[in-house]
Design goal:
Length: about 525
């Protein structure tokens, strides 16, 4: 089906039919994968599955909070507005930046409060509250996952304004921090720098009920021209290589490696430094909590010697020393969200070709959930039309091994730029969807929920009870032979299946429990009209 035909199918079909056309339904034992049982079937079809997430950036106040001097109530109100919009759009995950630059938007004994909260690094929100705990509680109350997003090595952003706090790494261990253009950067070759990042991440895993840990594309910094500073990421997206690039000043750590008998060349040594951290994060996260998934969103073009014909541009392998292919090969992550920030019809960086490349590199069968440059809609230059993002999602849905995507970033969806939020909701996100399961971390089905149903007012009221390991309930209701799908948070005790204006009450309702890894229990028939 061509993208325009598929878009019409989504708009005109019922919810179940549209989801089936998109391939979002998992395989059913009584039918072919992606094929919906006939209307009026006694049992509901498989639950739709798709990771629908959005990055919420705190650095430079891109998404939240809107400015750094809001009080706690204002910050919380903005967070609630973001979460309500995500829920209304039928997204199912938030990727919240909690460590912009060796700082924290949560209560930490390791690193200082971020200046993007209050305008002063080291100063807590007033009145005091813990933003990360607030985000997690509010996200889970809406049935949304919360993935904590960390920048692994950046120590100070170019636009930072406040004085560095006494407990910032630039003061507690300045020897491991290097000046690079207008940035301060932790040297990946310094064991103390890697330990700091590992300690920070595992501290969050232990103390907070996060669903995922996420790191971005900043490993070694994007190279800058010597002596210019800034614009490196833009040049990389444009496929340009710098001239007279300023090399990262890691001489002391490199010389110690050589003096200790190290035999790798310098680029390979740098990649090894990053690889060690990736492996340690993967193992450490799952040692603490087996259900917390680890995701990485690297730059979207892979190593030069493996690229498809016609693909060219900036090399994260050679410039950022990010060997994402090795991470996939070794299974050191649970999902990869390559930043595929180029149009479908830009030959040198074509979205479908790059997506297929990462799918083929995924030999361990991890999740591939590409990053989309949704914020380019309405941008002052090289802007996208909303149709570009719509079509990229449609293309992704045709790849059975790429069952999800992440929008960068929330500001575009909050502003509904050129109607993108409306179009997503009315065409592509007609129904909620469960996050795809992660069977390599555990595949035992949760217990069947206890459900009591009664007719009350203008709907069927469900009394729900499930096990403590469950994250959500999957709820199917049938009206006039057509099934409708809903997702309720496990914290909900009551859930109402409303009457349809034309068709009246649901004639059947089924409920299942879904655990933290996306495993679904057997379904229980909670309601049957006339029974």
């Amino acid at each position: 089906m061509q993208p325009d035909q598929q878009r019409r199918a989504f708009a005109l079909a019922g919810v179940a039919g549209a989801l089936a056309a998109s391939g979002l339904f998992s395989a059913c034992t009584t039918s072919q994968p992606g094929v919906l049982p006939a209307a009026g079937a006694d049992l509901p079809p498989p639950a739709p599955r798709e990771f629908r997430a959005v990055w919420v950036s705190t650095v430079a106040n891109i998404d939240w909070p809107s400015k750094p001097n809001l009080n706690a109530a204002q910050q919380q109100a903005e967070a609630v507005a973001i979460l309500d919009r995500a829920k209304a759009l039928n997204l199912n995950a938030i990727v919240l930046q909690v460590r912009p630059a060796a700082d924290a938007i949560y209560a930490s004994t390791i690193e200082p409060w971020s200046e993007y909260l209050t305008g002063v690094q080291g100063q807590a929100p007033q009145p005091w509250y813990d933003p990360l705990k607030f985000w997690i509680t509010q996200a889970h109350a809406r049935g949304l996952e919360l993935h904590a997003w960390f920048n692994p090595y950046r120590a100070r952003q170019t636009g930072a304004r406040s004085t560095v706090a006494p407990n910032h790494i630039t003061r507690t261990n300045p020897a491991v921090v290097k000046s690079y253009g207008k940035f301060l950067w932790m040297d990946p070759g310094e064991e103390a720098a890697a330990k700091q990042t590992l300690d920070v991440v595992l501290d969050v895993v232990r103390r907070y009920d996060v669903d995922g840990i996420h790191i971005d594309d900043y490993f070694y910094p994007y190279p800058i021209d010597n002596p210019a500073a800034g614009g490196a990421e833009t040049a990389a997206l444009d496929g340009k290589a710098g001239k007279g690039e300023l090399d990262f000043p890691d001489g002391p750590s490199w010389q110690r490696y050589v003096a200790g008998g190290g035999r790798l060349d310098r680029p390979s040594w740098r990649r090894q430094n990053v690889n060690k951290l990736i492996e340690a994060l993967y193992e450490g996260i799952h040692r603490e909590k087996s259900w917390v998934r680890f995701g990485i969103s690297p730059f979207g073009i892979g190593r030069p010697d493996r690229r498809p014909r016609g693909i060219n541009g900036f090399s994260q392998y050679d410039k950022l020393y990010a060997d994402a292919e090795t991470w996939l090969q070794n299974g050191w992550l649970d999902y990869l969200s390559p930043q595929l920030y180029w149009p479908i019809r830009q030959p040198a960086q074509a979205y479908p070709v790059l997506l297929d490349y990462w799918v083929t590199q995924n030999v361990q069968g991890r999740h591939i959930w590409p990053g989309l440059f949704t914020s380019r809609i309405g941008a002052p230059s090289k802007e996208y039309a909303p149709a570009e993002i719509i079509e990229q999602i449609e293309v992704t849905r045709t790849r059975p091994n790429a069952r999800g995507h992440v929008h960068f970033s929330m500001v575009a969806l909050m502003q509904n730029r050129k109607g993108i939020s409306d179009q997503l909701r009315s065409a592509l996100y007609l129904s909620p969807a469960l996050v795809p399961a992660t069977p390599w971390l555990g595949n035992a089905a949760p217990g069947i929920p206890t459900v009591l149903a009664s007719r009350r007012g203008n709907g069927v009221v469900l009394k729900l009870a499930a096990g403590p390991a469950n994250a959500t309930y999957a709820i199917w209701s049938r009206y006039g032979g057509q099934w409708r799908f809903a997702v309720a948070p496990a914290s909900r005790v009551d859930w109402t299946v409303p009457d349809d204006v034309k068709l009246g009450s649901a004639d059947a309702v089924y409920v299942s429990a879904v655990d933290r890894l996306g495993n679904e229990s057997a379904r229980v028939q909670a309601w049957k009209r006339g029974a």
